[in-house]
Design a protein that fits this description.
By secondary structure, this protein is an alpha/beta fold. The protein has a domain of about 170 residues: TIM Barrel. It is built from 9 helices and 10 strands. It binds iron/sulfur cluster. Iron/sulfur cluster binds next to loops.
Length: about 240
């Protein structure tokens, strides 16, 4: 059985914790989180660059930090991960990253040990779950990355994958926007993929409360105009941009 490669918290342990979901359709729900390491994209504003921007990786990031891989990744068996999650006593599990669907094998093994827990997966929408993982998923939070993320659209917006998630009633889309022009790109994607009404969230990019509040001032009327839901980032207001929260 392969290990899960997890991100680490400030103590160096696997980043597994209980908190309120801060974003998207389940915002405010008490959940257990597990954050997996590694990502196939490289967003310039990624707030979890410690999951992928290791020393030697020169893909651009606004902070310019190169993380020590040994200090920021930890291998954990599916059994140990499941035991840590079960000990948190939550009904629902959010599997996040990084890009967690890069580790479907050990994820399926972990979920097999947690047969009753509800499962929410946060993905960038470029890959899909194996059947053993997919059958356990109650909700996908799909966050396709727009041009301002700095990713090549050929890597970040894969038509077959977007089609797949657009057809799945378990999938909600959450677009990170940094300027009003980004909403035009979301509207073009909506026209192309016909996302379900009520399944599209726009969320301001920001890792501090002042930035989020300022951007929400222009974002909220755009949501109202186009029928999108607006997502806050509640954990940023509560805890700041910190690990394990
Ligand atoms: Fe970070 Fe998510 Fe972008 Fe990956 S897809 S670089 S985890 S924001």
């Amino acid at each position: 059985m392969a290990d899960l490669i997890c991100a680490t918290d400030d103590s160096g342990a696997a980043e597994i914790f209980a908190s309120l979901q801060g974003e998207g359709p389940s915002a405010g729900v008490p959940v257990a989180f597990i954050r997996l390491s590694r990502c196939n994209l490289a967003c310039t504003w990624c707030d979890t660059a410690y999951t992928w921007r290791f020393e030697g990786d020169n893909r651009p990031h606004r902070d310019g930090v190169a993380y020590d891989r040994k200090a920021n990744q930890i291998a954990l068996s599916p059994e140990k991960a499941a035991a840590k999650i079960a000990a948190l006593g939550q009904k629902r599990l959010v599997i996040t990253g990084g890009e967690p669907l890069m580790q479907c094998g050990p994820l399926a093994d972990m979920l097999a040990i947690l047969p009753d827990i509800e499962v929410e997966i946060e993905t960038n929408g470029t890959t899909k779950a194996s059947s053993h993982v997919d059958i356990r998923v109650d909700q996908y939070n799909v966050s396709p990355k727009l041009a301002h993320s700095g990713n090549d659209a050929a890597l970040a917006l894969i038509p077959e994958r977007l089609d797949f998630y657009a057809c799945d009633p378990r999938a909600f889309f959450k677009f990170v926007v940094a300027s009003p022009q980004d909403v035009d790109e979301v509207l073009a994607l909506q026209r192309e993929y016909r996302f379900r009404p009520g399944h599209v969230f726009l969320m301001a990019e920001g890792t501090d409360s002042a930035t989020l509040r300022a951007r929400q001032q222009w974002l909220s009327p755009l949501c109202l105009e186009h029928g999108f839901r607006m997502s806050d980032r509640m954990h940023i207001h509560l805890y700041g941009d910190t690990r394990g929260t």
